[in-house]
Specification:
The chain is α/β, with parallel strands linked by helices. Helices cover about 35% and strands about 25% of the residues. It has 10 helices and 13 strands. The strands form 4 sheets. Strands 1-7-6-4-5 form a 5-stranded mixed beta sheet, sandwiched between helices. Strands 8-13-12-11 form a 4-stranded mixed beta sheet, with helices on both faces. The longest helix is centred in the last third of the chain and has 23 residues, at about 215-235. The chain binds oxa(dethia)-CoA (UT7). Oxa(dethia)-CoA (UT7) binds next to helix 2, helix 6 and helix 7.
Length: about 325
């Protein structure tokens, strides 16, 4: 028995913010952002909430899968920027969709969030415990950015992607690898709310995402090709067998480096970062939906998904579409 993605969906906020728009409000330029990252624009939430975006993406995925929300056994949401601390995004999504019988919870693995949620769903399906699982990855990262820190805020965007997974005899997930390195977590962090109980003296100042970009870059270009190679070996495949590599969209230079290290042409690495920026847990499912809707995935194609990010965390999955 395999876990097959049988429907995908995605939703981006309406407001498009181009590099030129940012250069009017901070000391940056289209040339710097494009040449260092490949990003030209991103969508930022102004009116939308994350649960609205996630619900829109989920409805598309359910429709393609031909499954009603009330048939869902589980909802897993990869996110670090749920609208509320409580309830979770997954539980809010359950309410929005009317998925009354689903078990729902969030997974915090930053940019690997969708991969980790997908691999968790795979284990539940293979165990026979659940059949129909909605896996979501989405963020409104713009609320976690320091808009005075040009080295981080220009990189990220908002949006949500979804996939419905079901058991299948022939197609689906062939292998997966996951990893974490908490010892190096400080290179990409966002401190949470400070304790303010009556017995502590503390500042209540809000904290934002802070990143040592070069350390994260080195981590990504070393770890992602290794994770993909391990996942391929577990699946008994080689890079030549793979039709598409759907990678986390952080920086075009990282994707080019992975393509070079794996000796796979860039044509096999679709991207959306030029108009989406880095949407953390949303990147992989939004891109997957884009390639699915554009008809770039045919039944039987071999696909690799890979993510990496804060934690540090990383994951790769190999599947037959
Ligand atoms: O989802 C996973 C999360 N993140 C990543 O994967 C990010 C990985 N890292 C990267 O993508 C790159 O390290 C960055 C794109 C973040 C930065 O590129 P870089 O080539 O490592 O640049 P840098 O940080 O070394 O900065 C070079 C210069 C600095 O100026 P000085 O010190 O050389 O005068 C920065 O102050 O660029 C300056 N700079 C900017 N200039 C214009 C930093 N941000 C900006 C900006 N506009 N937005």
């Amino acid at each position: 028995m395999k876990t097959r993605i049988c429907g995908t969906g995605s939703a981006l906020p309406k407001r498009v913010v181009k590099n030129e728009d940012l250069s009017k409000i901070m000391d940056t330029s289209d040339e710097w952002i494009k040449s260092r990252t490949g990003i030209a624009a991103r969508h930022l939430a102004v009116e939308e909430t994350l649960v609205q975006l996630a619900a829109e993406a989920s409805r598309q995925a359910l429709k393609e899968a031909g499954i009603a929300a009330k048939e869902l056994d589980m909802i897993l949401a990869g996110t670090i920027s749920a609208d509320n601390i409580l309830p979770s995004l997954a539980c809010e999504l359950q309410r929005e969709l009317g998925a009354a019988k689903a078990v729902a919870f969030d997974i915090n693995a930053a940019c690997s969030g969708f991969l980790f949620a997908l691999q968790t769903a795979d284990v539940y399906i293979k165990s026979g415990q659940y059949r129909n699982i909605l896996v979501v990855g989405g963020e409104i990262l713009s609320k976690l950015m320091d808009w005075n820190d040009r080295s981080t805020c220009v990189l990220f965007g908002d949006g949500a992607g979804a996939a419905v997974v079901c058991p299948d005899e022939t197609c689906g997930i062939l292998s997966g690898v996951q990893g974490s390195d908490g010892a190096r977590g400080s290179v990409l962090s966002c401190v949470g709310r400070r304790n303010n109980n009556p017995y502590v003296t503390n500042s209540t100042a809000l904290s934002f995402v802070s990143m040592d970009g070069q350390e994260v870059y080195k981590f990504a270009v070393r770890t992602v090709p290794k994770a993909i190679a391990e996942a391929l070996e577990k699946a008994g495949l080689t890079v030549e067998d793979i039709d598409l590599f759907v990678l986390h969209q952080a920086n075009i230079r990282i994707i080019e480096s992975v393509s070079k290290r794996l000796k796979v042409p860039m044509e096999k690495f679709p991207t959306n970062l030029s108009w989406c920026g880095n949407i953390s847990a949303g990147s992989v499912p939004i891109l997957l939906d884009d390639v699915n809707r554009r008809g770039l995935l045919k039944k039987g194609d071999k696909v690799v998904l890979a993510g990496f990010g804060a934690g540090l965390t990383w994951g790769a999955s190999v599947m037959t579409w």
